[in-house]
């Protein structure tokens, strides 16, 4: 799979989960994909949220892996 195809799949996954983050005053953006690791940045209310790591693993990572099973990890890059 080409890098651009993988990026499109990850963006689709983020588009699926974004409404849930926005409903709590947050958002997410894709920073990069390197060696099957997706780097994202949480925004808004997600930045200071005490459960953002749970959201990242159980929500974001699970959704991304549904679209792109080759992804091994999703990590948040803090601003």
Any key phrases for this structure?
79 residues, 3-stranded mixed sheet, 3 helices
Question: Any overview of this molecule?
Answer:
It is a single chain. The protein has helices at 3-23, 45-48, 52-67; strands at residues 26-34, 37-44, 73-76. 52% of the residues lie in helices and 27% in strands. It has a three-stranded mixed sheet with strand order 1-2-3. The chain is α+β, with helices and mostly antiparallel strands. Helix 1 (3-23) packs across helix 3. It is globular, with a radius of gyration of 12 Å.
Write a compact overview of the structure shown.
This protein has 79 residues and is of the alpha+beta class. The protein is built from 3 helices and 3 strands. The protein is globular, with a radius of gyration of 12 Å.
Write the layout of secondary structure elements.
Blueprint: H1 3-23, E1 26-34, E2 37-44, H2 45-48, H3 52-67, E3 73-76
Parallel strand pairs: 2-3
Antiparallel strand pairs: 1-2
Helix pairs in contact: 1-3
Instruction: Give the count of helical stretches.
Output: 3
How far apart are the first and last residues' alpha carbons, in Å? 30 Å
Mean pLDDT figure:
91
Which radius of gyration do the C-alpha atoms yield? 12 Å
Structural class: alpha+beta
Q: From N to C, what is the helix and strand string?
A: HEEHHE
Oligomer description: single chain
Strand order of the largest sheet: 1-2-3
DSSP E strands, number = 3
